[in-house]
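Deliverable D2.4 — example input (structure tokens):
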């Protein structure tokens, strides 16, 4: 199966436009951060992008990605607007390097937008609770869209959902305190 035939005409071009806008806003917002936060943020965004590189070689969705963790950490470490633009960059660049530029990429960006909006409701709670609840919301939005909008297999989507939740539970219980470094 040729991947190029699955990508609608003009989608790559549109994705590049969105990527450049997101990078521009991201860099503008990066100017307002403290010096140590800049390096930590860049490291986390690169980590989020690299975490989906395996999808280039394996076509099964395993739920392993760090974009959700990084986005939620940035929501509370910096702010939700910044986190949304970082998530947009991670999703688009990750999709390009993994060779999966397709319509669900935009659904992922929308799901991260929902997470960033809802994160404002959890400002006073523990990072572990916040992270797990927001990861759950992200996975529920994606699971619903994958099954009911795109017609993906519920079994594959459930596997992706479960593995991603286990990964995020582990990450937030072990490394959630990284928010304090900002």
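Example output (designed residues):
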């Amino acid at each position: 199966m040729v991947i190029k035939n699955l990508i609608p005409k003009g989608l790559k071009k549109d994705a590049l436009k969105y990527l450049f806008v997101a990078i521009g806003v991201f860099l503008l917002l990066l100017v307002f951060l403290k010096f140590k936060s800049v390096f930590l943020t860049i490291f986390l965004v690169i980590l989020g992008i690299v975490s989906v590189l395996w999808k280039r070689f394996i076509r099964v969705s395993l739920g392993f990605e760090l974009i959700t963790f990084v986005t939620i950490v940035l929501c509370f470490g910096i702010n939700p607007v910044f986190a949304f633009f970082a998530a947009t960059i991670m999703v688009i660049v990750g999709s390009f390097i993994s060779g999966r530029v397709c319509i669900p990429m935009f659904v992922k960006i929308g799901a991260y937008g929902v997470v960033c909006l809802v994160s404002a409701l959890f400002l006073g709670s523990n990072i572990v609770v916040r992270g797990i609840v927001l990861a759950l919301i992200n996975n529920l939005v994606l699971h619903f869209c994958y099954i009911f909008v795109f017609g993906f297999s519920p079994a594959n989507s459930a596997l992706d959902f479960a593995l991603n939740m286990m990964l995020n539970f582990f990450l937030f219980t072990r490394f959630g305190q990284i928010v304090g470094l900002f």
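Residues 127-149 form the longest helix (23 residues).
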